[in-house]
Amino acid sequence: MTNMLKEFKQSIVVTIWFVFLTFPLMVVRVNTMDNIVEWRWMNLVWVAIFSFILSYAWRYMLARQQVKKKDAESDGDRHGKIQLLLEDMSFRYKAMVVLLLGALIFPLVFDTYQSTIMISALIYVVLGLGLNISVGLAGLLDLGYVAFFAVGAYSYALLNYHFDLGFWACLPVGGILGCLFGVILGFPILRLRGDYLAIVTLGFGMIVKVVLENWSEFSFGPSGIANIDKPGLFGIDMDLAGSTIYIYYIMVAMVVFTILITMRLRNSRIGRAWIALREDEIACVAMGIDMARTKLSAYALGAFWAGMVGVLFAAKTTFINPASFTFMESAIILSIVVLGGMGSILGVILGAFILILLPEYLRAFSEYRMLAFGAAMVLMMIFRPQGIISNIRQKYTYKGVKEETDNG
Amino acid sequence: MDYFLELFFGGLTRGSIYALIALGYTMVYGIIQLINFAHGEIYMIGAFVALIVAGVLTIYGFSGISILIIAGIIAVIYASAYGYTLEKIAYRPLRGAPRLSPLISAIGMSIFLQNYVLLAQTPDFLPFPSLIPDFTFMEPVAHIIGSPELVILIVTVVTMIGLTVLIKYTKIGKAMRATQQDMSMARLVGINVDRVISVTFIIGSALAAIGGVLVASYIGQVNFYIGFLAGVKAFTAAVLGGIGSIPGAVLGALVLGWTESFAAGYISSDYEDVFAFGLLVLILILRPSGILGKSRKQKV
Fold first, then answer.
1. Phi, psi of A30, rounded to the nearest 5 degrees
2. Are residues A314 and A366 in the same domain?
3. Residues 223-252, chain B: which have Cβ within 8 Å of A?
4. Which CATH number goes with the domain that contains A189?
5. Which of A134, A148, A168, B243 falls 20 to 30 Å from B150 in CA-CA distance?
6. What average pLDDT does the segment A231-238 reach?
7. Do A64 and A115 sit in the same domain of this protein?
8. How far is A27 from chain B (nearest CA, A)?
């Protein structure tokens, strides 16, 4: 009973604190032009109710977290049912076939509008997977990822405008340019620790946007570039619906390609080097891994996908301007990776679908989207740092090694 | 020459604002090695609270300097409260987690606070009343340095002196320095490290709020996004001077302020931000520990 009373007291204190904290911003709204003050007392009631309930939830979750930590210490690592199911190879193949078939017939079943939404979700899937290479695998926090996306989009738009180059010619060019920028940016910051890296990449993202906005002779300034060619298919003319479906299929192919490559990369020598680097830089270097090359390759490969998908983005929207490449975009991609599960490919894919499709279909709440993303990033870090679907590390189990050594 | 002096004082003013924000970054980083990404948002909230209080007070018939003082004090109180709460919610549960976790949590908090202000108030720029009066004795030099600049410089200098005294001569200042040197050792000698961290956040937030009020009444408008850029710039300043070092943050902020001011004045104002970040990259390549920073050897 005293315990309950104590909890109640705590929640009341929290409630009063938050009512105090949010009072000026939530309740008062000043119109400095006409000198009118608007008092929104109802908001205060909402804040009080929510903070009262949330303080209970917060304490409960923290307590559960503590219990879980203890469990994990005594129990070794356990994985949820989903993870175990995913490890099952036969299930994996079946699921893949079903998903691929579903993806292939999707535009035939649903209308153009749905396909367009799906294309943007798939774009974010590729972006998330690309960022996952540097953030999730190599542990290099990149806050200016959208800059590489912009590099790809602008390279296609400009090449198309000046030299009339087609989509397919520009696709690799965009990727390689993104890659190149990744290397250029990567070089100076190789020696830096993680936090500095975050701020430099953030700065780089801003520089790219400022340059695109102000260097009008090069990028046509804030008004952007319009009338970019859609991807062609052996010169066949397509109507809007047709080209949307076509882009959709290109996007599906690209997602499959990305998944395959990143999956192979993760289990390759370089992928293991990335993971090792993420876990402990000093130990990793001591083991003889070339830090500069490993970091640069993670950076450049991450940027490669962004550049490539940037070309596709320009081809899809047929119009680009610097406003599409703000820090918020980088933040969205980062939250996809964080919420999905850093390093986990399936998690990132799921994260992209949830974060892009949910606000799309819940239009009424779309203004709260970024608020929810921000809160989700904090909560995820505190309560479930491994993301929705955590990455399982592959382990080798040695069989029969003992007898061999005995004989030898 | 006048143009040069104007740019010089413009840079000095700008630099002193950056310094007020940068101090919060550098103090927090010195103690828990975390880039507090949401620090810029605290600064923005400070400016917003000041705007709201000033608006209400204007309607109830207060005037001039009294509004500035009351609004400033309330803004400082609120910003400190936000800073304290921020640390408790977003950073304290993550103590001892991998380095990336609190950083991402900080970014999440920054996005959250931005959108909170956006939704609770307005996405538009709000005009901020110019609370600093024009002094008559400043008129002869007004084309080089105006009254608002003078007030900003004076307030900044006074705040810095206060901060130095606090850190050098008070008990909590001593505890802060001890925690910065070695957290576990500080805990062993009986320092309540959690409290020290809270106090650090409160002081940093209060400084940011002072900067927020000053800059808002200097520039004359606020919106929910001002904190982000100012935060990044101030962090740049902190890195420039050597993160973790308090005089370094001030020096870095001044260097950054002058760089921006002169580059904007003599080269092009469109690329102001590019110069700031260019400077950051340059410093990080040439001298990663900053101007006054000591390079700490990593130990295993």
1. -105, 135
2. yes
3. 228, 232, 235-236, 239
4. 1.10.3470
5. B243
6. 68
7. no
8. 8
Q: What is the DSSP letter of B92?
A: G
Quote the pLDDT of residue A325.
Answer: 87
What backbone torsions phi and psi does residue B15 show, to the nearest 5 degrees? -60, -35
Q: Which of the residues B35, B56, B107 would you substitute to probe the A interface, choosing the one with the greatest number of A C-beta atoms within 10 Å?
A: B107
Is B67 an 8 Å CB contact of chain A? no
Task: Give residue A150's pLDDT.
Answer: 92
Give the lowest-confidence range in A158-167, A250-259, A318-327, B269-278: B269-278
Domain B2-286, CATH 1.10.10 — does that match?
no
The whole domain housing A28 covers 2-75
SS3 content of chain B, % helix, strand, coil (to 5): 75, 0, 20
How many residues are listed for chain A in this entry? 408
> By the CB < 8 Å criterion, does A28 face chain B?
yes
**Over the stretch B49-82, which tens digit does the pLDDT of each residue have?**
988 888 888 888 777 778 888 888 999 999 999 9
pTM: 0.86
Q: Per the structure, how many domains does chain A have?
A: 2
Contact by Cβ (8 Å): B183, B193: yes
Q: CB contact, 8 Å: A377 with chain B? A: yes
Q: Is A98 on the interface with B (CB under 8 A)?
A: no
Shortest distance between the Cα of B107 and any Cα of chain A, in A, equals 7
The per-residue pLDDT for range B34-47, each reduced to its tens digit, is: 888 889 999 999 99
Residue with tokens 């209308």: A111
Cβ count near A358 (within 10 Å): 13
Q: Is the pLDDT of residue A78 over 70?
A: no
**Residue owning tokens 């069989």:** A399
Amino acid identity, residue A157?
A
Give the DSSP letter of residue A408: -
Residues 6+ apart with CB under 8 A from A302: A130, A131, A132, A133, A134, A135, A142, A145, A148, A182
Identity of the residue in B104, B112, B128 whose CB atom sits nearest the CB atom of A371? B112
pLDDT band of A124, cuts 50, 70, 90: very high
Establish if B99 touches chain A: CB-CB under 8 angstroms: yes
The predicted model gives A252-279 an average pLDDT of 88
Domain ranges of chain B: 2-286
Is residue B30 scored above 90 in pLDDT?
Answer: no
Q: Do B288 and A338 touch (CB under 8 A)?
A: no
Does one domain contain both A182 and A304? Answer: yes
Complex confidence, ipTM: 0.84
SS3 content of chain A, % helix, strand, coil (to 5): 80, 0, 20
